[in-house]
Amino acid sequence: MAVDVHQHLWTPAFVDALRRRTAPPRLDGWTLHLDGEPAYEVDPADHDLARRLALNEDLELALVSLSSPLGIETLAPEDAWPIIDAYHEDALALPAPFGAWAATCLGDIDPTRLAKALDQGLAGLQLPATAVAGEAALARVAPLLDVLAERDLPLFVHPGPAAEPENPGWWPAVVPYVQQMHASWYAFAAFGRPRHPGLRVCFTLLAGLAPLHSERLINRGGESRGQVDAEMFLETSSYGPRAIDAIIRELGIDVVVNGSDQPYATAPDPALGDAARHAIAVTNPSRLLNRKESRK
Fold it and tell me: Which of 22, 27, 159, 171 could form a disulfide with 167 if both were Cys (CB 3.0 to 4.6 A apart)?
C-alpha cells in the first residue's frame, strides 16, 4: 500500500496552543493571523480527523508535519516549545495510518530534546528550508542532523515563512517557497553532504525543480551533472506528470517519493505506468524512511 510523506493535520492541542497566543502566529477561532500577511480563514473541515481518515483509507502510512510557513520554529524558545510539544503529543497519538515528522525550535538547538522526541516513534525531523539554505545555516543545525544520522532517520525539508502581502494569494507557494527549496537543495549538496555523508534528506515540492538547472550549474562552474546522490529524495506535492517526468529524466526514478500536502493539494499521478507508481508511492518512501516495503 502507498505511503504519503507530506500531510498537515492541525490537532486539538496544536489548535488550542495557537488560540492561546496573543501575537502571530495565532488563531482567533479559525482565523489565522501571521506576521506580514492578511488574515486567513481556515476551513475546520480540512483538519477534521474522521474526514482525513476517510481520505487516507488506501494509504499504509501518512506522515503529518508541523506547518513550517507559520513560523513556529523561529519563535523565541519560550513561545515555540509549548506549541511544538503540543503538536508532538497529539501527532504521536494519531491512529493508523498516521505517523509524524518531529519539529524543533531553531532558537534553541537542542539535540537531546530531539533525540527524546524521535525515540517516541517520530519518523525523522522536519526543518524549514530557510534553516538549511546556506553553509552557516547548515552548520548551526548540524547537531540536529547528527542525531538523525545516529538513528538512521531522515531529514524532511519544507518551505518556511514567506510573508508577501502585496502579491496574489498564490504567490508564496509559487515564488518564495520554490526559491527556498531551490536554495536548500544546492546548499545541502554543497555544504551539508560533506558533513553528513549518509544522511537521507527529502525535499518537498520536487526541491523547487532545482535539479533541472544542472546544465546552468555546469556552465557556471559546477560539476554535479550526471552524479546522482541516492540519499537526496524529492517529494511530488503540487506538481504533475510533466515536472515529475522531467525530474526522473535528470535523476532517475529511485529518488522520487509520493507526497500530497493535504489538505492543500492531492497526491499527483505520475502517469508513467504501474511500475513507476509503485516505485514512487511504495518502494522509494520505504527506503527514505528505512522501513520494510509492504507486500500488500
Answer: 171
HSE of 204, CA atoms in CB hemisphere, 13 A: 35
Tell me the pTM: 0.95
Among candidates 26, 65, 21, which has minimal Cα distance to 263? 65
d(CA 107, CA 144): 13
Which of 182, 244, 191 is CA-nearest to residue 210?
182
Alpha-carbon separation of residue 238 from 42, 213, 261 (angstroms): 19, 19, 8
User: Is residue 149 within a helix (H) or strand (E), and if so which, with residue range?
Assistant: helix 135-151
Read off the pLDDT of residues 238-284 as tens digits, 9 standing for 90 and up.
999 999 999 999 999 999 999 999 999 999 999 999 999 999 999 99
Residue 213 contacts residue 183 (beta carbons within 8 Å):
no
Q: Is 3 helix (H, G, I), strand (E, B) or coil?
A: strand
